[in-house]
Amino acid sequence: MGTPGEGLGRCSHALIRGVPESLASGEGAGAGLPALDLAKAQREHGVLGGKLRQRLGLQLLELPPEESLPLGPLLGDTAVIQGDTALITRPWSPARRPEVDGVRKALQDLGLRIVEMGDENATLDGTDVLFTGREFFVGLSKWTNHRGAEIVADTFRVRSRSSSVLGEPGADGDFAVSTVPVSTSTSHLRGLCGMGGPRTVVAGSSEAAQKAVRAMAVLTDHPYASLTLPDDAAADCLFLRPGLPGVPPFLLHRGGGDLPNSQEALQKLSDVTLVPVSCSELEKAGAGLSSLCLVLSTRPHS
């Protein structure tokens, strides 16, 4: 799949939401999900917040937990943020749609331009959207449909490059948006692949992950290096440029306690500082690492 990555701007803020007690029961978390160890899930979440604030130097904003929103900590599904624009998503599950309200207000308070999805036929989970720094890939999955992908394209003023790319021709500097079929009902696109650096796509070794990467390679004009990881979940990582001058970029990733088989491969990413975290307990509720926070890649307007 040029020099992608310049659009992955320097980060200033991160937004997370606390873990409610209602997430601890399978019934509260949603049908078919196992019961969680609440204390462990809250510890994992606390460590994640601490590393975002102390290790990466981001200003951390934490929304309080809401018992009526057991999956509220997965707030990465609720918005797609690029620059000073935040697209508020429309989750596939009606039960999750109230999650966007607190996120919307927090992003408004930070001065971001808010774009709403007014089409009732559209569904979009934020973790189906992968931004590479030069373009967007939107996974067509159980959670995200074609109309949702079209709204991503409309929001970020893309230029059309082929029948696979959504949106109308625009000015230079607009972002292309391509759709990528997700051939599994258990993962979002970012549960299969992610950015391991400014020019590197990382992907799991499953057939679904490899199909997604092959599709991206066909659609892009920007050749990326690629790295295959033994675990799909290890590809659900966050490449972050801190706002501090002279500090190299970070890769927030699942550590060896969660995914030991992928650690050796991650060491090949020599142009980033690896920052491991755990979300093995939160994963039982469907959380991937990138679903647990929203990162603002530019400083909001005051």
Description:
With 302 residues, this protein is an alpha/beta fold. Helix content is 20%, strand content 24%. It has six helices and 16 strands. Strands 1-13-14-15 form a four-stranded mixed beta sheet, with helices on one face. Strand 13 and strand 14 (250-254) form a beta hairpin. The longest helix is centred in the first third of the chain and has 18 residues, at 38-55. The termini are far apart. Residues 1-7 and 159-173 have low confidence and may be disordered.
Strand order of the largest sheet: 1-13-14-15
Number of separate strands: 16
Radius of gyration, CA atoms, in whole angstroms: 18 Å
> What order do the helices and strands follow?
EEHHEEEHEEEHEEEHEEEHEE
Gap between N and C termini? 37 Å
Question: Main beta sheet, described?
Answer: 4 strands, mixed
Low-confidence stretches: 1-7, 159-173
Number of helices: 6
Structural class, from secondary structure content? Answer: alpha/beta
Beta strand %: 15-25%
Which of globular, elongated, flat, extended, rod-shaped describes the shape? Answer: globular
How much is the average pLDDT? Answer: 88
| Overall helicity | 10-25%
